[in-house]
Amino acid sequence: MDIWISKIGYYFLNVGIVLVYGLLLGAFIAKTMARVQGRIGIPIYQPFIDILKTFTKRQAISHGIMFNLGPAFRLAGGLGTLAFIPVIYGNEMFSNFSAAGDLLLVMYFIFFGQLGMALGSGESGHPYAAMGIGRGLAQMTAYEVPFTLAVVAIFIQYDTSSITEIVAAQQGSIWNWTLFTNPLAVIAAMIAFLGMAAYPPFDVAMAPNEIPIGPPTEFHSHFLSMMQMNRAIFAGAKLILFMNLFFGGATGLIELVFKTWAIYMVAILVGAAFPRFRTEQAVRFFLGVPMLIGIASVLYIQYWAQ
C-alpha cells in the first residue's frame, strides 16, 4: 500500500512538471510563430494567466451531460497517456505506472481523449463544432495509419510492447536509438507527429480564421481551462512518448527538455513554412508516402534487419 501511495504521489508530481513544461513550451512556440510573422507575441507567462482566469469563471448554459463530460474525457486522455509512460528512464520517481501498462494502453488513451472530446462537442449543436469533429476524426484516422505501422515495426524489432524495455534496449550508445536502427519507422512516425501536433499544414480541425477553434467552439469558463491544461499535458506526454520510442529516452531532466524541444521544433518549423491543407489533402497525404514508409519499416525490420 505504501508503494502505491508513493507512486500516486510521484505521478501527480510528474503531472505538475509536465503541465508547467507544456505551458511554457506552448508559450515559447506562440512567441516563435509571432516572430516569424513579424509580431511581438504573448508574454511567456500568458498561458498560466489564461488558465487561472478561465478556471474561476462559471457558465449558466449546458447542452447536456455529454457536453459537460467532453472536456473531462479529454483531460482523462492526457492524464492516462502520461500515467503509463516513464518520464525519465531508471528513475523511480519519474517512472509513473509504466510497469503496469504498455504501449498499446498508451495508444488507447490517446484515442480516448480525442473521441471523448468529439462526443462532447457534438452535443453542443454548433455547426463549427461538428465541422471540426468531422475534419479532426478524418485526419486522425489517416495519420494513425503510418504511426501504427511504425509501432508495429517497434514491436517486431524489440519483441516487446513495454515502453520501459524499449527504452532499455536503446541504452549504451546513440547508435542503439531507433533513429539509427530503424530510420524508416522514425520517419513514418515523425510525419504522423505533424498531424498529432495540429500545426499547419495539419490544423484542419481547429482551422483558425475559417471555423474558429473547431470542436471547442462553445466551451468556455472552467471547461476551457480543463482543455488548456490537457493541451499542455497531452503535448508533453506525446513528446516524451516519441522520445522514448525513437530517440533513446532520457536519463535526466536536461536531456529530456533538450530532446522533447528538438522533436517539437520539427512540427513548428514545418508549421511556419507551409499553409494549411484542406481535409482531403491531409488525408491523402498521410495515406500516401507516409503509409508506404511505415510499411517499408515493418518489412525492413522483419526481413532485412534481423
Largest sheet: none
Oligomer: single chain
Fraction in helix: 55-70%
Structural class by SSE content: mainly alpha
**What is the overall number of helices?**
12
What do you see in this structure?
The chain is mostly helical. The chain has one domain (2-304). The protein is 70% helix and 0% strand. The protein is built from twelve helices and no strands. Helix 5 runs parallel beside helix 12 and helix 8 packs across helix 10 (253-273). The protein is globular and about 55 Å long.
Describe this protein with a few key phrases.
12 helices; 306 residues; mainly alpha
Would you summarize the structure shown here?
With 306 residues, the chain is mainly alpha-helical. The chain has twelve helices and no strands. It has one domain (2-304).
